Amino acid sequence: MMLNIQRGDPQQEETQLDDEEIRNLINSFNIEELRNLLQQQDKKFWFITRHGNYLLEVIEQHLARVVTELQTNPKYDCSQLLEFLQENTKIPFAQELIPSSENLLKIIEYTEDLHIYDLVSSILLSGSNYMIRRKIENLPRILYFWKILYNHINFLGAQKINLLDYYYDDPKYRELCQEPIESLQFDIEYYEPTQLDESYEELQKNFLHQKKLEGQLLKKKISIADDNSTSALALSRNLLNLQNQPLSPLIEIVKYRILIQRGLQTDPKKTRKIIIGLHLKSLKFLGQRILKSIFKGCYNQIIGKLEQTDNDNLFRLETIEPMSLEQVINIPEYHFNISGSERHQELLLKLISDVLSMNHIEENEQIQGYPLKYNSTILSQQLAMDGRLTSCILINFYLISFRNAFFSSDIMKLLIRVLNIQDNKLMLPPEQFGDALSLYNWLCLKNQENLSQNFDDLLSIIGHYVNQGQNLQKPSQKGYVQISDNEADSIMTKCIKILSQNYEFMQFDRDNIFETNQTINIDTLLTNKILNSDILKCFAGKLSQQAQLTNTAQQALYFISCLTQAAPDQTEKIIESKTPAILNDIIQNIKVEELDLKKTIYILKFYRNICLQEKGFDHFSNQAIRFLHNLLHYNLVVQDNNIMQWINRLNQNIRDIIHLNNRMVGLSIEPIQQIYQQLLEQLNNRIKNLKFDQESKTEFKKIVQKKNAILTLNMNIRLSSDGIIDVITGLFRIPSFTNFYSSLIQPKKIIERVLQIIESWEAELGQTLDNAQLQYLDEKKLFDQFSPQNLTIVGRFSEIFHYFSAINIEQIRTSTKDLKCKLLEKLGPMFGMVIVTKDSEQLKNHQSKFSDVGILIGLFQDLIKLEMNQYLEPIGRFFDKLSSYLVSCPNATQQLLLLISTLLQTIPPAFQTKLQILLINSSFKNNLLNALKNYNEIDQQNSIITKELKQYFELVFKYLYQFPRSKEDLAHILPKIIQDVQSLYQISIDSYQENRITIIEFLIKKISQILKPEFLNSNLSQNPELINVVEEMGYSRQLISEAYNLNIVFNSPEDLVHYLEENRNLLEQRIQQGQKQENLNLELIQAQKESLKSYVTTNILRFPISQVFFLNFPGIEFDQMELFKYLLHTAYEQFNLKLYFQGVEFENTSTPPPWSIVVILKLLSQQKHFTEKQDLIAIEMIKILEKILQQPEICKNGIQAINFTLSIMTKLITNNQEVINLLLNGIKKILDLQVQDGITVQWCIDVLIKVFSKQQIINKSIYFRIWGVRIALQIIRKTIKSYIYIWQIGNRNNY
């Protein structure tokens, strides 16, 4: 495992609230405050990423409390919480905030409020995929929930109804319905037995219905008699006589029926709207193709085939609520099949024709109320004139035409008729006018054949509306009335916005398709038509009457930006319209403190685009700089809150203005430098006035935020001058905690500067950083120990890290060796002081390249990339220093090991062996061993930490004791490796306990490698055929071996021969120089291998039982008689069992560790054959088996002993009937105990196969065969592999 040093974005990681404040906010669970936080674009992603999981935990706690409350009070109102959750499901990439389905389904179970049903269904719909993945067992429950909503009172109803039937008292109902009803029937009819009374608990276990429908079918009818005296859930149980049964689909069906009946009695309008909405949402959910395909079996059994419903007649009703019709319209088109989608489009065509079918009432007709009449074919007059419904229809038509090639010239004619008024009387209210104009504009762009004429018409309409302004009249129930100033402003705003949207559409084409000539031509056509019209003068006339940056002026700013960006060569013409000058005057007169982010962005973009050309630059550059100065002064110097939010959103726009051209850069430096200087002086004064009390902590956080804001800003706008550099470096000493970025543009002599700072600090301390007792403080610790002295220390560290972050690979490359060595020397103590303040989770999950650890690791990596040969010794000293903290700071062992393993893995492969040799012979290894010993002397309670530490220790030891590829290097280092591995093995088995850190698994594998007979010869086995060919050509094996020792890869005999000839002198010289030393090392290696073998065999009884799976030493042949002697001893000590093996005497020496018999049984199971009488050995083994089976409880070690004993028995089975009978009885006992261990059962089957393969077996053993197979099949029937074993038994013994 390595530290994940991510690229990181300092703008995103700087926040206004620290973790403690956020946790307190979450714990308080003030929904309004949490909602505000999640609505802030710059904080939302950070908040969800960092605190989303914790917020979800708290949400689940509150949901659980809601469930508890509902159990006693079914009418409890939990809508506020559910509305908050519903909002969260709409946040992109916010899966961390989606709750599990468990509590939501329980809320549905207990609530009596259909509004709560509606809210929960919205949450389930939005988060369904995530919820199902997280707890798939709930899928049957979720499917039934949606099926019940889909069927409403049709589920088990005797009389099937459509949604239309809920309006049976509507005047038009009977003419719309072929089979009208007189009233709604709520009776329930079904046949018993039924699977619907199978509980959700059973369904969750099996995923499908398991209940078999057996017996005579009886029809059951239940009439709902409800006096509201009990809860709907209790009433449904009583009606079904299922009072004590867990919740089932049948109970839930009846409960929903009761709630519908109650709702229609108390508030029919609201209830009908909710029922329709729930039905339509269920259609969305159940229509998901992915649901039908992935969970096909479960879906088909519970849902089956959905009937396509036709809800078109709902629009013909007179009393239906417009909001219900909006829900029908808003069903996404992709939930329909092809025919349904076409029908939906046809319906929208008719509906849009209806809402645009208005005409003025003739003069000879008496006007009573609304001055327009509608010639609608579907909608009633009242519905056709409903503003919200009209907007819904227009917007959905727009969306459909946007997603596909759907287009209607008839609709364009209707729109132009309604929009192109010749007087001042609007045919649509102002709100719907904007929707209709947007649709017309979009259809103009889609109909490119007539684009020129259509766009002329659009400009004419817009010009007319803008010129009329407040003179426009709108239709109302009192006839035509004058529109308000706000409405006039909104109309003009909408007109300007629609023109701006055309450029957004063009940009969309460029970004998402290709920039075609057609796109460019449309862009040019629209721009020319706008500039050749009077539209800009119209805008100028209206804007000149405004002194404030209204919505209209704001939209005009954006429109001018679009125009100047699309046609920079037309900037002069745009300026001549006077609109830019009027907007500029408005900007210069406003107070920057009154600007929000959106307005500010529009202003900055306006100045950037208008100043692109020389004419615009001459007119507006000075005003742009003045505005920028005022903006920066207020938000950086005056303002204290939300600075980073402001910077994150605006820095790119500010940079775009400053780097417009060299002239603008020149104009910008002095005013921005002045603001930087003011801020630095302000921050230094505020630090001097800190009183180091609780109130000062808040003040200090504001200081740090302002410092980080300046650094972030300058890093993005990239301005540099001597004065700016002085300010930036002056800010370095103000502490940072999470991000250290320099903001210095092309810094020089940074390494010299940072070393001077460190040396100066060391002089002040009177000692080097290695020896200084300094505590590196994170933000929390600084506040816990808030003092002037600690503030100075943190400031020094901060300054150093800021300079460190400015060092790049080029500066390292051009520095002297002495400077690089000094820098590397200082990294050690810096790492040590920083690492002890982090926990391992912080190191693993929250490091970016701008963090303290990230900067140090990045510097180390850059230092070792260049000329590493020259720095091996300094690097070795660096790791020695780093490892010394393992001893001096034992509480940071976990973090230090993670860091060390990460750094070691960054070493280039070419230098790994050299560094490995250096470290093995240094204090680095000893510090590791001491850390391992020290940690194991403390009783560890946290198994997770113990497991991680084991992993980190292994990573470091694997690096330290990996075998070099070069045989020469291997021969040089192997004696040390063998010696250390034996020492480590001895330490490990001496101190082995389950709750201790052990690297025994790693050591066993390493010992196995060392003891392999072919070890050290692997280099010559890389390509034996190639080597033999070259050897036959007359080259010596020794010469070839030396070539491979240099780690050269040869692809063909020709490659190897060419290398031998080119380097013959070098190879022969190496052979002469190294022969004596190599022979000496090989002799030493062989002696050490023998010593290692001896130690392993002598201490075999102390081998850790939990690691017995890895017990396999290929280079050691254990004496069989010696193993039997150990078995006598361990069996007696473990079970007080006396065994007999011919020629082996019992020796009661030292007491072996508990269950060491498992080790001996494992070694015996590895024996290929047994030299003594097998029947006698088998009988003793069966004694062990029986003794284990007599234990009151068979532990894990006992299971292992059984497995190894059975493994031994597979090698001892003969035709001896006594042994066979004893063995079969033993297996019967094992299977009777139903040991739930697949390996044990498989060994039983292996033994049975061996027994049944003997042809002389007597008939009475057939019983055991049949019985054994049956029991084995019962136990492991779910394991596919077991069927192979059963098949083997049957094939071996056909009878």
Structural description of this entry:
This protein is mostly helical. A hairpin with a 2-residue loop joins strand 5 (about 475) and strand 6. The protein is globular. The protein starts with 9 loop residues before the first helix and ends with a helix. Strands 1-2 form a two-stranded antiparallel ribbon. Strands 3-4 form a two-stranded antiparallel sheet. The protein has a two-stranded antiparallel sheet with strand order 5-6. Helix 31 runs parallel beside helix 33.
Short summary of the structure?
The chain is mostly helical and 1295 residues long.
Provide the residue-averaged pLDDT: 83
Counted by DSSP, the helix tally is 61
Amount of beta strand: under 5%
Weakly predicted, low-confidence segments: 5-16, 511-517, 1255-1260, 1273-1295
Task: State Rg.
Answer: 42 Å
Distance between the termini: 57 Å
The neighbouring-strand order within the major sheet is 1-2
Based on CA inertia axes, which overall geometry fits? globular
Total number of strands = 6
Query: What is the makeup of the main sheet?
Result: 2 strands, antiparallel
GO cellular component, one term: cytoplasm
GO molecular function, one term: ubiquitin protein ligase activity
Protein name: UBA domain-containing protein
